């Protein structure tokens, strides 16, 4: 068990959530460099700047992160004088912006950073891990900060104005966290941190089963509701806590492996969101693992939400199955499993899903 384990902290609400900024930044200094996406910055800055000005926090720079999280861009930003001089950093936007700031923080010897998510699509705003890509958007590696962001400011009034497809895909990725962690952990002795994460993992799926459809409808209408707030927190916060508690190898399994197999097809990679494809991969996991009651529990939700249950919904055909399973069985995501996952298992599971009405 890790001797030191830091859990993320957050403030949740509407635009007034930013009033808490001085309370959490005062221990770190009086200057900030703000890094984020162009759209995200345009949404958040009008609500952040007045608070910073009133608190006497000097904004040394506002930087567009570059559109992709790469080691090269992280190092480039870290070399900027304004970023070096800042007492702390703000990461504003979606997962790629958050992860870029994590790379910057690593480069600057663990410089403190705070997060302000503007879409409810990933747990990047509360997690310790950064998914790093190459400039041509190919996965490169993961990087780890020593602790989660100092604090996460979650403004649901901004989140609900974002395109609803981000929440839609984020829910798909989030429910997989429950099933993948439990599959990876099965038949293994677990320490306290892992037991905590596995217990919380059900909170990655059950709220979505109960409230996901309503939350998505409210997101489409840009209307905040209890359902929307619950699901936004499930995607952003609960998943981040679970990810930090369980071993890294437990965080991904068959659902993600199938996703990586599907995106070997260019049209799938270009036209579909990560969480959408992971949601499909989860159906394959449940089928391979013979969790048929769970499969039947989720299928009505999938159909109501429009999540893919067939290859055709991901621009795929039966001819792609060999490539999908070849890739899926080659990735490390399935290394920690209770049994050997074979190409034949995955093929039969995909074919089973294709046979359903």
TrEMBL record:
- Which reactions are catalysed by this chain? glycerol + NAD(+) = dihydroxyacetone + NADH + H(+)
SUPFAM superfamilies xref list: Dehydroquinate synthase-like (SSF56796)
Specify the signal sequence span: none
Instruction: List, separated by semicolons, the cofactors it needs.
Output: Zn(2+)
Residues bound to NAD(+): 95-99, 118-121, 127, 133
Q: Which CDD domains match?
A: GlyDH-like (cd08171)
Q: Name one GO cellular component term.
A: cytosol
Domain (Alcohol dehydrogenase iron-type/glycerol dehydrogenase GldA): give its ranges.
13-137
Query: Which keywords annotate this record?
Result: Metal-binding, NAD, Oxidoreductase, Zinc
For this protein, the Enzyme Commission number is 1.1.1.6
* A molecular-function term among this protein's GO annotations: metal ion binding
In Pfam terms, one family for this protein is Fe-ADH
Q: Does the keyword Plastid apply?
A: no
Q: Which InterPro entries match?
A: ADH_Fe/GldA, Glycerol_DH
Instruction: Tell me the superkingdom of the source.
Output: Bacteria
What name does this protein carry?
Glycerol dehydrogenase
Lineage, please?
Bacteria, Bacillati, Bacillota, Negativicutes, Veillonellales
